[in-house]
Specification:
240 residues; alpha+beta; 4-stranded mixed β-sheet; 3-stranded antiparallel β-sheet; 7 helices; 42% helix
Length: 240
């Protein structure tokens, strides 16, 4: 079998999925009278939410994401066992001082907004900024609604390699910043291959997914849920 994951990358991805699955709420979905309801575990009981309301929609998105991640985790853990037997997962690569510098507010201040204008589309605009996709415009609106200072597609240096995150977000009260990637065409093989190369750059530099860089996954038929995005960003900012 032709594997696309190196041992380090496979280990990092498994760690990331386990961490995200633990973070997301546990629950299930049921349909009653044509309406989908989400049952969220709360201690030893369950609380039910209707997807006709924003809170229920947000929980529905999170449950779907968690179930999808569980499926991916099971597949990758099976791959790990097949390739590496009982080996323990590798420790994440240590972050060098130069990499730690790239997640500071001072570094953020040095970044140029809209530095990468390759393939920008005039049809997608947010406050004068040309963006590549409608999903990015929606996410920019979420950041703006939360009064978060952000830069779109700056260029950062990771171990000598130029990488352009979709969004850099500053958290000045804590003296640091974080990066967000809008992964919007995961059902396209060429797009997915390009994404893996970008993911490699982050992992090789020692970035920790879910802490330093956040990946928000969509497909060509999936419209982002604003309430779920707000919740995701707020959680990311609070953990900084």
């Amino acid at each position: 079998m032709d594997y696309i994951w190196s041992k380090q990358r496979l280990s990092d991805r498994i760690r990331y999925l386990r961490r995200e699955i633990d973070r997301l709420p546990q629950g299930c979905c049921i349909t009653s009278h044509g309406v989908v309801h989400v049952r969220i575990k709360n201690g030893n009981t369950f609380r039910q939410y209707s997807t006709r309301k924003d809170e229920g929609k947000a929980y529905y998105e999170q449950i779907c994401k968690r179930n999808k991640m569980i499926g991916e985790l099971q597949s990758l853990e099976a791959e790990w066992k097949e390739r590496f037997g009982g080996d323990e997962l590798l420790e994440p690569k240590p972050r060098t001082p130069s990499i730690l510098w790239t997640i500071t507010s001072i570094y953020y201040d040095s970044l140029q907004n809209c530095a990468n204008n390759y393939y920008t589309n005039k049809a997608y605009m947010f406050k004068g900024m040309r963006m590549r996709s409608k999903n990015e415009v929606i996410f920019a609106g979420v950041l703006d609604s939360l009064n978060l200072d952000f830069k779109y597609e700056p260029i950062i240096q990771l171990n000598g390699r130029a990488v352009s995150p979709d969004f850099a977000v500053n958290v000045p009260e804590r003296g640091n910043c974080m990066y967000f990637e809008i992964v919007g065409m995961v059902d396209d093989p060429k797009y997915r291959e390009s994404f893996y190369k970008k993911l490699d750059a982050y992992l090789e530099a020692g970035f920790i997914p879910g802490e330093d860089v956040f990946f928000l996954f969509f497909n060509s038929k999936n419209i982002p849920d604003t309430a779920a995005l707000v919740s995701r960003v707020v959680c990311a900012v609070e953990q900084r």
